[in-house]
Amino acid sequence: MEIRLDGKRALITGANSGIGAAIADELAEAGAKVAINYVSRPEVAEQMVNDLRNKGKEAISIMADVSDPTQVEKMFYELDSQWGGVDILVNNAGIDGAKSDTWDSELDDWLKVININLMGSYYCSRQALKRMVPQKAGVILSTSSVHEIIAWTGHSAYTTSKAGLSMLTKTLAQEAAPYGIRVLALAPGAIKTTINQDVWNNQQGLNDLLEKIPLRRIGEPSEVARMAVVLISDTASYVTGRTIFVDGGMTDYPDFAHGG
Questions:
Q1: Which residue of the set 38, 77, 158, 253 is catalytic?
Q2: Which residue among 1, 50, 162, 198 has the highest number of C-beta atoms inside a 10 angstrom radius?
Q3: Residue 1: inside a domain
Q4: Domain range for residue 36?
């Protein structure tokens, strides 16, 4: 079965690296127009746009810090100007933050993670829904993490932001369902991106990580991106208000494979 998103207008935040870049590529391959949001490295975003245009795809780049509601509002006005609105929002921008036990954490560091990961998703979803509700159509997909349900020592801000994103997803799905809008989250496990390169590029760290994954390998960004396309498409037309895990079985707690 071929999945097509021809003509759909998609905004992907944090789309000039890692999982976000892979999602942008896959959505474009399925026929969607893609807006690549970035906050740094504009040259990478522009190169992505050029590469997609050279393949006959429609793409633009928009700079905005998702933790700033004013910049988010301007980003959506830019979409209105360019494409007349939005059909797909992928809340992908996020950081894991500085590692620290909570009692030793710096308040500004902790809030930065919350403001980008959780508040940024709220700001973008709010603007997207203002446009999707009147047109009675749309899909919002947020990149969560296995750490919305698995604690992670030293990263309480990150786990809190992802757990909050899970409930935001459920609540928005409930609110938006009467208007034909679906809201979902996608939770990757260990994926081979630059954000965790220090782990998978180190044999000891890699071995430890693989022990946590029943499939005994790290996932690729493309594997997450392909699932994103499925969830965004009408193939998943009866799915909303849920987090879908793409984690190689990590949330199956493989340490218990030998028994309790």
A1: 158
A2: 162
A3: no
A4: 9-193+222-246
